[in-house]
Amino acid sequence: MSTQKPLLVAVVGVGLVGSEFISQLLSIPSPSPLKLISLTSSTRTLTLDPNSSSSSAPQLKNEWKSLLSSSSLPADLQSLTTRLTTLVSQDKERVILVDNTSSDSVAALYPTWLAQGINVVTPNKKAYSGDVQLWKDILEASSSQGGGRYLNEATVGAGLPVISTLKELLGTGDKIIKIEGVFSGTMSYIFNEFSTGREGGPAFSAVVGVAREKGYTEPHPADDLNGFDVARKLTILSRIISSFPTSSPSTLPPLQSFKSVKTASLIPPELEGIPTGDEFLARLPAHDAQFAKLREEASKEGKVLRFVGVVDVKGGEVRAGLEKYPTTHPFATSLGGSDNIIMFHTERYSPRPLIIQGAGAGAAVTAMGVLGDVLKLV
Amino acid sequence: MSTQKPLLVAVVGVGLVGSEFISQLLSIPSPSPLKLISLTSSTRTLTLDPNSSSSSAPQLKNEWKSLLSSSSLPADLQSLTTRLTTLVSQDKERVILVDNTSSDSVAALYPTWLAQGINVVTPNKKAYSGDVQLWKDILEASSSQGGGRYLNEATVGAGLPVISTLKELLGTGDKIIKIEGVFSGTMSYIFNEFSTGREGGPAFSAVVGVAREKGYTEPHPADDLNGFDVARKLTILSRIISSFPTSSPSTLPPLQSFKSVKTASLIPPELEGIPTGDEFLARLPAHDAQFAKLREEASKEGKVLRFVGVVDVKGGEVRAGLEKYPTTHPFATSLGGSDNIIMFHTERYSPRPLIIQGAGAGAAVTAMGVLGDVLKLV
To answer: Which stretch of A57-61, B111-115, B141-145, B303-307 has the lowest confidence by average pLDDT?
Structure first.
C-alpha cells in the first residue's frame, strides 16, 4: 500500500464515549493514519495544528483533557465548520467529523458538513432515526459531487458489525426477508433476569430497580421502557434497506421518524408522564402483577418474554415490543448480561439466519464501533 | 461521493463459487463500480474489453459461459499477469484479481500480482495457511511502494464477517484473549447430528455416510475428518493476529504452515491412507464403538461433542480437535445444519464474547464473501 497523508479527525463530544474514542484513536501505533485536529466539548474547543509534530499521540493522550479545559476558545460549531471546509476545499485534506454527542442540533449539521466534502462518523442515532427530511438531506448531500461519506455502525449494536453486515448482504444482492433482534442492552438485561422460562421469578419492578442501580437504564427508566431506543435502531436499519438500489421497490413502510415504528411501550398507561425516575420506580410495583401474568402465560407455553425489534421486509412491517420465544430459541438460551443479538433472515441465510451477538452498549465497544468506521475511511 | 472509474475485475476459476461470484457481480444495479475484464477457467481465457460497452452486464450474465467455452485463448496466467500489469502501470487502472480456485499454483502468484499493484481477493485458503514463506512474501509485496491490497474474508466462515471483525477488534486496540469456534460446516453437521447430549443416537459411520450423500463432505470423507480444513482456518486467523502492529509481541506460536497446528484427526489410525472414500466408509463402522464411547462419556457429564478450533492467544496455543461442551453452551444449543459459530473472547468483549454464527459453506454465501471484499476495495 502506498503511504497516504493522514486523515484529519475533528471530534465533537467528549463524554464517556467521546473520551474513550479519543483514547483509542491516540493508542493506534505510529505511524497512525489519523491525526486529531480539534476537540469540542459542550463549552470549549481545543484546536490542534495538523502540521505540528509537537504534540505526539502518547503525550496528547495524557494531556488533552487539561488542554481542553484550559482552552479559551468557546464551543462554536460554526467556526469549526468554516475551518474544516477550508481544510477540504483549499488544502485538499481529507477530514472526518466524529459526532460523539447525542445531540439533535449537531445531527442537524450533517447535511452541511457532507455537502462540503467532510465525512461524518457517529454513534448518534438522532439524524438517522429522526425526521425523514433530515435523512433525505443527508443522502442527497453525501451523493452530491464531492460530497463526504457518512458511517454510523455504532448506532446499532455499538461495536457489533450489524450495519456493515446489512450493507454487505444488500450490496452483494442478497434479499433481506426479516431482521429480528434484541437491540437494547437494557431491555436484554431486564428480560434475561425477569423471564427465564421457569415458573415464578423476581418482580418486574425489582428487576428494573436493580438495572437502574447498576447503571443499565437511563436515570428515568421510562426512557428505556418506552421502547424508543429500539424503534430508533429499527428505523436506521429499515431506511438502509429502503435506500439500497435494487430492482424491486421496497415493501417497507416509509418511516416519517422513529415514532412511525409500531412500538408497544412497557410503560403502564397510569405511569405515563411521571416527571422523575424515583417516583416512577416507587409507583411501578403496583403494576408488577400484570407483568407477572404475562410471564406466567409465556412459561406455561414453554416460552420466555423478550423485548424485540423486527424489520419484517416480507411482511412490510417494522415493530418493537414484547414477544414470546420458546426456551430453546437463541433469544432465550444464548443471551446473558446486556447482550444484543441480531438475526438476519435472508434469501441466502435461510432457513437458518446469520446471527451476531455480544455486548451492545458500553463506552469501550461503542467507541470501537466509531473508530472502526473512521478506519474504514482511511 | 464522487463518481470514480470502475474497478477492473479479472476472475480465475469458474467452478461453483466462481460462477456464483460472476453472477452476483453482474447483478449489481447499473452503474456498477465494477467491470469484468477477463475470465479464466482451467483450460480457457475469455478477454473482455474494459472500454467496450458492447456487452452489458445482464447480457454477459447470460452469455459468459458460452463465450468462455468457445474462446480460442488458452488459460495462461503468465499473459494474464502481463495484461493486468500493463493496465495498472501504463493505463493507471485499478485492477482486482479474484482467485476462485483452490489451487496452490494460483496462490503462489499472489506476491507477483501484489508487487505489481494488482489487488487480490480470494476464498482460496492455500496461500494464507500454507508455507510461511509465501505468507511473508504476500505481506512484503502488499506493503511495498505501490503494492496491491489483499482481502480473504471468505477463507473463514464464507460470507460471515469473521476476518473483518477480527481486524476491526485489533485495529481499534482490543486485545484478543481467545477465538473459539466450529469452523467446519461438515464437522458441524456431523456432530450436531451425532451428539445431542441425549443418551444414545445414530452410529458415527451412519452420520458420516448421510453427510456424504448430502454433499456436505468431500468425496473422500477423510479429507474432512483429518481436521486440516479447520487447521487452515486457524492458521489464517492466527497469522492475522501475529502480524498486527501492537505494542506487545505475539504470544502465538509462529506457524510454519497449517500442519503446525495441533490437530487431533478423527481418522482412526487403521484407516489412514485408504485411497477411496467408498472403502473408507465401508470400513468406518468397525470404529463406531469408540465414537459411541466418547459420546456416552460426554452425555454422562451433561455435555456434547463438538469439533472445534481454538486460537488461544493468552495460552499461546492453536489447536483443532474434539472437545466437550455443556448442553447449555451455544455450541450445543444454537447450532443447526452446517452452521459455523465463532466466538471472540477479547478484553472488551469479556466475560461474554462477541459471537458470529451462520452458514459457513455453500457457493452463494462464499461468493458473497468474495464480492463483499471486492466492494470494500471500491
So the answer is: A57-61
Low-confidence ranges of chain A (pLDDT < 70): 1-3, 53-55, 247
Q: Is residue B310 annotated as involved in ligand binding?
A: no
pLDDT for B247: 62
The average confidence (pLDDT) of chain B is 94
In a domain, B2, yes or no: no
**Counting Cβ atoms within 10 Å, is residue A337 exposed (0-12), middle (13-18) or buried (19+)?**
middle
Q: Which of B9, B163, B357 to mutate to test the interface with A (most CBs of A within 10 A)?
A: B357
| A233 tagged catalytic | yes
Confidence class for position B53, pLDDT limits 50, 70, 90: low
Q: How do beta strands A354-359 and B354-359 pair?
A: antiparallel
Both B203 and B99 in one domain: the answer is no
Q: Are residues B308 and B370 in the same domain?
A: no
Bond into B33 cis (ω within 30): no
Q: Are residues B287 and B214 in the same domain?
A: yes
Of A24, A29, A172, the CB nearest to B24: A172
Q: What is the pLDDT of residue B289?
A: 98
- What's the pLDDT score for residue B1? 41
Indicate the DSSP class of residue B247: S
Domain co-membership, A120 together with A210: no
A195 CA: distance to closest CA in chain B (Å) = 17
Q: Are the beta carbons of B355 and A334 separated by less than 8 Å?
A: yes
Residue of B nearest to A150 (CA): B1
Does residue A242 sit in the same domain as residue A124? Answer: no
Give the chain A residue whose CA is nearest to the CA of B371: A172
Complex-level ipTM: 0.95
Alpha carbon of B272: minimum distance to chain A alpha carbons (Å): 35
- The CATH number that applies at residue B328 is 3.30.360.10
Same domain flag for A119 and A168? no
Per-residue model confidence (pLDDT) at position A1? 41
Shared-domain flag, residues A139 and A188: no
**Cβ <8 Å between B147 and A1:** yes
Distance from C-alpha of B311 to C-alpha of B177, rounded to nearest angstrom: 9
| B277-309 exposure pattern, b = at least 16 Cβ within 10 A, e = fewer | beebbeebeebbeebbebbeebbeeebbbbbbb
pLDDT of residue B334: 84
If 0-12 CB within 10 Å is exposed, 13-18 middle and 19+ buried, where does residue A274 land? middle
> What residues make up the domain containing A102?
7-158+366-376
Going by pLDDT thresholds of 50, 70 and 90, the confidence category of residue B251 is confident
pTM of the predicted model as reported, rounded to 2 decimal places:
0.96
How many Å is the Cα radius of gyration of chain A? Answer: 22
A1 assigned to some structural domain: no
What CATH code is carried by the domain that includes residue B83? 3.40.50.720
Q: Domain count of chain A?
A: 2
Q: Residue A158 has what pLDDT?
A: 96
